[in-house]
Amino acid sequence: PFLRLLEAQLQDQRKEYEEEVEALKNQVDAMKEELEKQQEAFLQNLQLSPEAQVEFGLQQEITRLTNENLDLKEMLEKLEKNEKKLKKHLKIYMKKVQDFEASQATVPAEWRQQERNMQVAVQRKEKDFQGMLEYYKEDEPLLIRNLIT
């Protein structure tokens, strides 16, 4: 059983390796074709007059920029599609928030009163205390005198 498992793993690795080698060979062939086209264009360009060489160079640059623009246009379309999708999600979430707020408005009055009481309690806790005793600022000298005596 262990040897069969190892054989199966080895065959899987060999298959992956062969697929990778095949993909790399295809990539090399494509690069060779591109190189041959560029060499042929370069040789033709050398045989042309200086004005024709400039025109040929401009044509190549126009072709390159056109391809780049097509890629950018495709990317823009994808981004616009994604934007529409996100706006749709935003509308859905906004609707859920509105529904939640509406459901909070229909909460019984006693629950809202409890919430207000809790808020008041929080507000009271936020007071600025200067120790363990609560006193008015104008009573401070009297309080100090009583503490000392």
Helix content: over 70%
Gyration radius, rounded: 40 Å
The largest sheet is: none
Q: What's the end-to-end separation, in Å?
A: 95 Å
Number of strands: 0
In DSSP terms (H or I, runs of 4 or more residues), the helix count works out at 4
Keywords: Coiled coil
Organism: Chloroceryle aenea
Protein name: MYO5B protein
Coiled coil: 3-96
Task: Jot down its keywords.
elongated, 149 residues, 4 helices, mainly alpha
Task: Give a concise summary.
It comes from Chloroceryle aenea (American pygmy kingfisher). It contains four helices and no strands. It is mainly alpha-helical and 149 residues long.
Helices and strands in order:
Blueprint lengths: L1 H46 L2 H56 L3 H17 L14 H9 L1
What does this structure look like?
Keywords: Coiled coil. This protein is mainly α. The protein has a domain at 1-47. The chain has helices at residues 2-47, 50-105, 109-125, 140-148. It is elongated. The protein starts with a helix and ends with a helix.
